[in-house]
From TrEMBL:
This is Condensin-2 complex subunit G2. Residues 70-98, 889-914 are annotated as: Disordered. It comes from the Eukaryota. It comes from Sphenostylis stenocarpa. One of its GO terms (cellular component) is condensin complex. Signal peptide: none annotated. SUPFAM superfamilies: ARM repeat.
Length: 1241
């Protein structure tokens, strides 16, 4: 075929074109290129081929347009229809040829040949003859837009024509450039972006002030947000050129960049900065002025006055392109001219946010100077900047100080050699002496980070060797992040030549941190010490000896060093040798101190835990820990922590001979009095549980715990008359465990005679163990399989009842039995739900029952709820439950057992049963209140958990009611202490503050969950209203009794739940127009039934402000309640965000003021109306909601009547002031909106 083409080309151009257009372009491209590029300048085709191609292109385009015209050859209406062909003839006739498709293929071949002619390396053709055809292709490019291959060939031809700088190229860009630009945005290929960039000069030929250019302008603006253009070098170069095409287009592009800044993508902002810098460098006149004064100046001001730190950082990132190019001619002078007037002024304003942003900008531009100024002027300006830095180091705002510290270190790192020594000394002295001891954690952390950065400059090392020792206290800092940074500093010093970390921080301090600090710190310290105390490059004997030295020097630090050594790359085989050395050392006749034995055993436990993951090591450990060695280890252990380590080792390795260890474990478990307060013993007990589980003694453990609880429950029955089941514990039918018979506990421990107090304390320790066993997944599974579960639960029930009922009189009552009791009930319920879901998912599955399945009934949680709430009733002194409770689902029925044994419970009064106490002892009274608050908190937690788990939705009204009662009981107790001027001891105050914080949170959580699920229930809304009032009253009582400091922490804790409190306050107003069967469902009825404390406090505060403004010396200042003030301010902010909630909650204030009118408490009315008119609403805000206006309809006429009837001047003054406050609202809605009306008297 190539020979025929060559022959036709030599014959005539027309014959060549005719033959070429019949070929397949894809397979013939190489042949075409070979033939065209082989044409010599003197040959005939050089003159004939371009014109022939042009004519063929024009003819083909004309034919294509003819095909596009519909009905181009219509038949005469008189011509009869042709006869329909038979199906057989249609089948045998070949398919008609698609003439349009043929034309497109022909055009594509012609365009390709034309492109080969234009790109001929020797330029032999007279291309002016080809221009008409190329022009026709360009003008019809939009017609061929749907034909991708053809349109691409046409665009390539126009592009090549422009690049070859051929005559008439200006006429080939109006269609081809927009096409290429659009395709680069659509296909997102880098090669297209490069082609656009190459042709960028052609864009200057467009008139961007003409209206017809809008489509092209939109494409160019789209390029400004295209990731492909932003991330490629060609794309940035092109966009920078676009800025110079038109002043107006440049302004639009700047506006587009400005709109993208808030999104804050790092790569995008850096790309915009680079584009702007390129455009600025190439711009002249108005374009440069627009970038400098119209954009960069605004950016600098926005970076300083930004409302948030992140937004300011986004702007600085964009400005960074200019700051990083400050060595370029003209950049530094421009930055100085734009920034100097605003930066120095902003560093000294009152707004700390502005100072912080200005400081960031100053540090980025430091040193800010005019390159054209004299040396004296530069020195003066530099001194000014150092003066401001030193001043900002002592700024009132912690955020400013933190930035100033790191910024100062950065400045010293970069410019140490040129900064005068006195300035360096002054700045470093402030940083090491003041900033390292700053009260703000962020500042101390910035100090360490800044020093680490400063160490990167070798010139600073000499002075830092002297100063670094002043940072030793930071490794013991109260903030974990600071301690981690302090160890990071030591790790950094390890890699700095001529520095030794132990000269910066004493080794004893480092070891103390290793022994007691949290894992992030301990692991980093291990990394620091590993090359010294367990190096991998020395023989294993020497490495072990070094580790022994560490453990002997600081036993617990050495143990934790071994724990984290494997994480820092220590060899497991070396660690195995270390275990052997440790065990031989513990069992050797050499005398070791008690704490050293503890350290070696703890270290051995940690290492065994690591090695146990590999079978080869676990087998070696079993061989190593034979029965003789275990017995030897038992003889050297003497206290809890040592016991714990030994138990852990045995449970990990599981040796065959464990004689004596199980008895030791059981002794630890059963000797549990005082366990709840002893952290070390708790650790020891957990280790004992783990060992018993591993060695098959778990059933014996549960049996022992159950026996202790059963005995304590019986003692409660004897002393307090608590109900006790008639059956006793039976172990006869229990399956024998592996360890059964190895030890006996009943005769030695369970049956020993003790006082009730001793038995109760023992039961408290057992209850703590029960709850702890339920928290661990492995022990929980075994625990729930126990055959003793029923008796254990019943015993906990009896002990919990005594604990709750008598917590208000006996200060020694503990919450652990209650926690264990409700935790076990919840776990039983969870297991029942899981079992039911499995059985419902597999109908054919047989129902399996565990040993305790008879007791694990589906209503176990209902029974527990009923029992706990009955205990609360007894605690509150309310004997008749039926009369005090609501109908329907909220009724609480007393059990038959309660009625049958009512006489038994009266054996001893609570005070007599708890032993004598001095009624005049204020400390005992405070302790009793503390005990009761802890118990009520435990019950609130139980109700919050049940509510959150959606196990008892029908008890929502009941829970709201009893939550309110618990909160009221706490309020009453705190108010009594405050009235009697009884103070807690400082430690007790901190502890009860934690309980009160939890109580408030649980009450608010219950409110939140129930409101979300109630859907406006007539049962829950009035009770939710009451609970919300009680929560607000609780804050006031806490602040009155314990001070503002503790109350502020509780306000911070309940801040998350404030929207729920407001919703509950407004719930009664929501329902006041609804016919509910519930008694006292409206706000007015609720407030009259139980008027809360908080409206009185609000009114007193408002009245004091009025009298203070009038300088009335006779007015008594209300009790300072700063926490309640803060809470009130937060509530007002939330209310103003939602007009509907504002309406219903504002109505509570209006109803409360109406109650004041009814009770002749006109001060209450005036104070609340003043709060509504001046705090909830602005003085000129008349837009009240319908519910508030309905109350105004009742209040205003009532005040009018009271004024007419009142004779007392002081009361008359209060009523007149109240009338003046609401009269503008009354008149506005009476005469302008008609939303209130005059009622007939």
């Amino acid at each position: 075929m190539e020979k025929r083409l060559r022959s036709s080309l030599q014959s005539s151009a027309q014959e060549f074109i005719s033959l070429a257009t019949k070929q397949n372009l894809k397979s013939s491209k190489l042949s075409f290129k070979t033939l065209i590029h082989s044409i010599k300048p003197s040959s005939p085709p050089c003159t004939s081929l371009p014109s022939t191609i042009s004519d063929s292109i024009s003819a083909s385009i004309q034919s294509f347009h003819t095909l596009l015209v519909p009905n181009s050859a219509p038949k005469s209406e008189h011509t009869p229809p042709s006869k329909r062909r038979r199906r057989s003839s249609r089948r045998s006739e070949p398919e008609p040829v698609d003439e349009k498709h043929e034309l497109l293929e022909r055009l594509e071949i012609l365009v390709h040949i034309a492109l080969l002619c234009v790109s001929h390396p020797r330029k032999p053709f007279q291309l002016s003859d080809l221009l008409p055809g190329v022009q026709a292709l360009h003008d019809n490019l939009i017609v061929f837009e749907s034909e991708l291959s053809l349109s691409s060939e046409i665009e390539s031809l126009c592009e090549e024509w422009w690049k070859e700088n051929l005559a008439g190229r200006e006429s080939l860009i109006s269609q081809s450039l927009p096409f290429l630009l659009s395709r680069s945005l659509t296909l997102k290929k880098k090669v297209d972006v490069h082609r656009v960039c190459v042709l960028r000069e052609a864009f200057a030929l467009f008139d961007f002030d003409d209206e017809s250019i809008e489509d092209l302008k939109l494409l160019l603006i789209r390029c400004m947000i295209s990731p492909l253009y932003l991330k490629t070098e060609d794309g940035r170069r092109f966009l920078a050129f676009v800025f110079l095409l038109s002043h107006q287009l440049g302004k639009e592009l700047l506006a587009m960049i400005r709109s993208q800044i808030p999104f804050g993508r790092k790569s995008m902002l850096e790309a915009y900065g680079d584009i702007l810098f390129r455009a600025w460098r190439a711009a002249q006149g108005d374009s440069r002025s627009e970038i400098e004064n119209g954009f960069l100046q605004d950016l600098i001001e926005a970076a300083i006055h930004a409302g948030s730190g992140p937004f300011a950082s986004y702007i600085r990132r964009l400005l960074g392109a200019f700051i990083n190019q400050r060595t370029t001619d003209g950049v530094e002078k421009m930055l100085f001219r734009l920034a100097e007037p605003v930066v120095f002024r902003s560093l000294q304003v009152a707004n700390s946010n502005v100072r912080q942003n200005a400081l960031h900008l100053l540090l980025d531009m430091f040193p800010l100077e005019d390159p054209d100024s004299t040396k004296e002027e530069k020195d003066t300006l530099l001194d000014k900047q150092f003066f401001l830095l030193e001043r900002l180091l002592m700024d009132d705002c912690p955020g400013v100080r933190a930035i100033a510290v790191e910024g100062s270190c950065r400045v010293l790192h970069l410019f140490w050699e040129v900064i005068p020594s006195p300035i360096i000394t002054k700045i470093l002295t402030k940083i090491f002496d003041d900033m390292s001891r700053d009260v703000c954690t962020e500042v101390r952390l910035s100090t360490l980070n800044g020093i680490i950065y400063l160490l990167g400059n070798p010139h600073s090392h000499e002075i830092l060797k002297v100063l670094l020792a002043r940072l030793q206290h930071l490794i013991l800092d109260k903030a974990l992040t600071v301690r981690v940074a302090a160890v990071d500093l030591l790790l950094h010093l390890k890699d700095v030549r001529n520095f030794q970390f132990n000269k910066v921080m004493e080794l004893e301090v480092v070891l103390s941190a290793l022994a007691s600090d949290q894992p992030p710190v301990a692991q980093k310290i291990t990394k620091l010490l590993l090359p010294s105390y367990f190096p991998s490059k020395v023989p294993v004997e020497e490495a072990c000896n070094r580790c022994i030295t560490l453990v002997k020097r600081a036993p617990m630090a050495g143990a934790r060093f071994c724990k984290f050594a494997i994480l820092e790359g220590a060899s497991k085989s070396h660690l195995m040798e270390l275990v052997k050395v440790f065990l031989s050392l513990i069992l050797s006749p050499h005398q070791l101190e008690e704490n050293q034995i503890e350290g070696f055993l703890a270290a051995t436990s940690y290492v065994c835990d690591v090695l146990a993951s590999e079978p080869c090591f676990i087998n070696a450990l079993k061989e190593l820990l034979n029965g003789e060695k275990i017995r030897g280890l038992l003889t050297v252990v003497s206290k809890g922590q040592v016991h714990s380590s030994l138990f852990n080792i045995v449970s990990i390795v599981c040796p065959d001979d464990v004689a004596g260890v199980l008895e030791e474990c059981m002794g630890v478990v059963t000797n549990c009095s005082g366990l709840t307060e002893d952290i070390d013993r708790q650790t020891e007990t957990r280790s004992a549980h783990k060992l018993l589980l591993a060695m098959g003694g778990f059933d014996d453990l549960i049996e022992a715990l159950t026996a202790f609880l059963h005995k304590a429950a019986y003692r409660c029955h004897v002393k307090f008359g608590a109900d006790m089941p008639s059956q006793s514990v039976s172990f006869a039918n229990r399956k024998k465990s592996k360890s059964s018979g190895q030890f006996s506990i009943k005769s030695k421990i369970i049956n020993r005679k003790q006082s009730f107090e001793d038995d109760y304390l023992l039961a408290v320790g057992v209850a703590w163990q029960v709850r702890d066993l339920l928290l661990n997944e492995d022990t929980r599974k075994e625990f729930m399989k126990s055959q003793c579960l029923e008796m254990l639960f019943v015993s906990l029930k009896v002990i919990s009842e005594v604990s709750i009922v008598h917590c208000g009189h006996c200060k020694n009552m503990n919450i652990s039995p209650v926690f264990a009791y409700v935790a076990l009930a919840l776990q039983m319920t969870v297991d029942n739900v899981r079992r039911s879901s499995i059985q419902s998912g597999d109908p054919k599955r047989k129902k399996t029952k565990s040993d305790s399945s008879k007791f694990l009934s589906e209503n176990i949680l209902e029974m527990t709820i009923e029992h706990v709430l009955n205990c609360l009733e007894k605690l509150f002194g309310e004997r008749d439950i039926m009369k005090r409770h609501d109908a329907g689902s909220c009724k609480l029925q007393p059990t038959n057992t309660t009625n049958q044994h009512s006489t038994k419970r009266r054996r001893l009064s609570p005070i007599d049963a708890c032993g004598p106490s001095n009624p005049g002892s204020t400390y005992v009274e405070a302790q009793q209140v503390f005990c009761m608050v802890k118990m009520l908190t435990a019950v609130l937690q139980f109700m919050a958990d049940v509510t959150a788990m959606c196990f008892a939705p029908h008890n929502h009204g009941l829970f709201l009611n009893y939550t309110s009662k618990c909160v009221q009981q706490i309020i009453s107790s705190l108010d009594q202490l405050h009235h009697n001027q009884i103070q807690f001891k400082e430690e007790d105050k901190r502890n009860i503050a934690i309980c009160l914080k939890s109580s408030s949170t649980y009450a608010a959580k219950i409110l939140n969950v129930i409101l979300a699920e109630s859907s406006g229930s007539s049962i829950t809304l009035p009770k939710a209203f009451a609970l919300a009032n009680n929560i607000l009253d609780l804050i006031i009582s806490i602040e009155s009794c314990m001070g503002s400091g503790h109350a502020l922490r509780i306000v911070a804790a309940v801040k998350t739940w404030l929207p729920d409190v407001l919703l509950a306050l407004g719930s009664a107003s929501f329902s006041q127009n609804t016919d509910f069967d519930e008694e006292h469902s409206t706000v007015s009825e609720q407030m009259k039934l139980h008027f809360p404390k908080w409206p009185l406090i609000v009114a007193k505060i408002e009245l004091f402000e009025v009298n203070e403004a009038e300088e009335d010396d006779e007015c008594s200042r209300p009790e300072k309640l700063s926490a309640f003030h803060k809470l009130l301010a937060m509530l007002v902010i939330l209310l103003k965000k939602n007009p509907i909630i504002m309406d219903v909650v504002g109505n509570v204030f209006m109803v409360s003021s109406l109650v004041g009118l009814e009770q002749k408490n006109f001060g209450l009315t005036l104070g609340l109306l003043r709060f509504v008119c001046l705090k909830l609403f602005k003085p000129d805000d008349m837009d009240w909601g319908d519910i508030m206006l309905s109350s105004l309809q009742e209040i205003f006429p009532r005040i009018h009547r009271e004024i007419a009837e009142e004779n007392d001047e002081d009361q008359l003054k209060k009523l007149t002031c109240a009338k003046e406050l609401i009269e503008p609202r009354w008149m506005h809605h009476l005469y302008e909106t008609g939303r209130v009306t005059l009622a007939d008297d």
